[in-house]
Here is the input.
Amino acid sequence: MSEQQFDVVVIGGGPAGYPAAIRAAQLGLSVACVDDWLNADGTRQFGGTCLNVGCIPSKALLESSELFHRAGSEFAAHGIALDGVALDLDAMQGRKQRIVKQLTAGIEALFKSAGVTAIKSRGRLLGENRVEVAGDDGSKRVLGAGHVVLATGSTPVELSVAPFDGKRIVDSAGALEFSEVPERLGVIGAGVIGLELGSVWRRLGSEVVLLEALDTFLPMVDEDVARDALKQFKRQGLDIRLGARVTRAKAVRDGVTVNYEAGGKKERVKFDKLIVCVGRRPVTDGLLAPEAGVDVDGKGFIVVDESCRTSAANVWAVGDVVRGPMLAHKGTEEGVMAAELIAGHVAEMNYATIPSVIYTAPEIAWVGQTEAEVRENGRDCKVGTFPFSANGRAKALHQDAGLVKLIADREYDEILGLHIVGPMAGELVAEAVLAMEFSASAEDLQRTIHAHPTLTEALHEAALAADKRAIHALNR
Ligand code: NAD
Here is the structure.
């Protein structure tokens, strides 16, 4: 076996791994990125779950399905009369696929210009910073690495009572590939993926039932925001059944039968397709040779410190494969931080200001603590809320449901959390992330001039409302 030497070998080319590779190369290090992602069409692409079967294709379908839905239900209110709206699902899927292709090809172009050696093969960490690379033809070679960054991501959790069959019972990737709109669609898990994919197919015409084991809807979301969102999702026809414990799902000739228990009663429903989205688990299968010396915890996550160092010298781990929220942007920042530390720079990241977004309509987005968390932590706080129904731009957009809620420390005025359910929430939250990154107070936001008419005025008014000085709302 020949041994090629790099300063850094990154295993995994998703949103955590590929930025780590690019940043390390920018800092003058010799870098290889090893990734074995295989698409259903047999092609190997960098980009991991996010670009190939996650964030990017789902956002493409969310946008298309939203436009389809609005054309049929809202355009008339704008005075636009349409002669019927027809769905061309093939074209919709084709557009999605082209976006994925452009972006995954873009990573290879970025690697090329940064000088990163791209290796589309399976990597395995041996001892002493050596990485074994196995090609499709069974060939093996070993790379020597000054540092190794593990960024192997996560994969959908499979339920033993509802095993994936790739046809009728599918994971999130399968649910992006339906070639026709299922008449009746079941979703196990009303979490982030369940709501996003349930929304896509609901807008395209499916009857959608979401079976959620917990009694609480979106427990990680601020209570006021979750309550408002649930009301709106129900209005859209999403049949969300809380406290529903699935006991068995079985593919039959013409569909899937699902047995579940709710409120002490046994129920049975039949669907054409069933999506199982009950969380994701870290991927380390076959990644670590015993001599690698990298500790993994009881849930399969690689153990790291706050700088993403593992238990093995000069081995780092970033992204979904380590603790923290499974979010692409969290992994990206960890990857960049690891690359900078490897190059001898000072780097750290602020885990307290990682934004979260659920791309439903309306979107849900937040940063920082919920009101319940602030109170649990024993801090006295003040809260300002502002409804989009009092925002001119939201009215003009015909999307005036939802609200902004700001939570600030009562004594020090520091912003502790900001929560939005409403139009473009995922874009709006960036203002609050920046504010919190600079430890802004509610007063800072109050004094910041926001353009009129924009959705951002709702954030401004929420900050004003925290001190009972909102202009366009009653200050109760
Ligand atoms: P999730 O944790 O968001 O939701 C899973 C839901 O399934 C939970 O509400 C859970 O209570 C429920 N559940 C678990 N077991 C169940 C059972 N047996 N029966 C019924 N319900 C059950 O997980 P997800 O939606 O699968 O997403 C996976 C990960 O990917 C998450 O960490 C998520 O943050 C991330 N993700 C993020 C985005 C985004 O940022 N927009 C998009 C997609 C995925």
In short: Residues 67 and 109 are 32 Å apart (CA to CA).
